[in-house]
Design goal:
Radius of gyration: 23 Å
Keywords: Signal
CATH topology: Nuclear Transport Factor 2, Chain: A
Structural class: alpha+beta
Oligomer: single chain
Strand order of the largest sheet: 2-1-6-5-4-3
Shape: globular
Helix content: 40-55%
Organism: Chryseobacterium formosense
Protein name: SnoaL-like domain-containing protein
Strand content: 25-35%
Number of domains: 1
Pfam families: SnoaL_3 (PF13474)
Order of helices and strands: HHEEHEEEEH
CATH class: Alpha Beta
Length: about 180
């Protein structure tokens, strides 16, 4: 009889402990999601306010920015060089997240996100990879994409074909 009581007590303890452990892990990730959301919102506000140093402080030293144009793939320093005149003239971008998803690696040291943004280009998609560095989330890679509704894809392709056909030929010939 004592073995049965011990078995049930142990089972209840293990069940309770595993449930508590899972809840605390979920709570940790919820806190991290909140921190990431705030960081990404602050990142967007810094751009809108043309705060050059603050905006670039959100990027890891080794990071990549991929813009909407096929030629826009820059490391942090290259992106800073490209962006500096826009920040100096206070002609930056104003993005506001309207829907955001955040995901985590099992160890919680890396996260990735996707979001829909309200921008001067209408709806865009921002996505990226974040790393926790010295207790702060930093952008390792950011990708900005213009969304294209399926109903107008053919029109958009027709509009951009002349420009991108030239670029495609250059890319294909440099690949050889």
């Amino acid at each position: 009889m004592n073995r049965i009581k011990l078995f049930f007590a142990l089972t209840i303890f293990l069940f309770t402990f595993s449930k508590f452990s899972a809840q605390s892990k979920d709570a940790k990730f919820e806190n991290e999601k909140t921190a990431i959301s705030k960081m990404l919102d602050d990142f967007n506000v810094a751009a809108a306010n043309a705060e050059f140093e603050k905006y670039f402080s959100f990027f890891a030293d080794e990071s990549t920015f991929i813009g909407t144009d096929a030629t826009e793939i820059w490391n942090k320093q290259e992106f800073k060089t490209w962006a500096k005149p826009h920040f100096d003239k206070k002609k930056t971008w104003n993005f506001t997240s309207v829907k955001r998803n955040v995901y985590f690696s099992k160890d919680g040291k890396m996260a990735w996100f996707d979001e829909l943004l309200d921008t001067q280009m209408k709806i865009c998609r921002g996505s990226g990879v974040l790393e926790k560095i010295n207790g702060q989330w930093k952008v390792k890679q950011y990708v900005l994409s213009v969304t294209v509704p399926n109903d107008v894809v053919d029109k958009v392709v027709a509009e951009k074909s002349a420009l991108e056909d030239v670029l495609l030929q250059e890319l294909k010939s440099s690949k050889k």
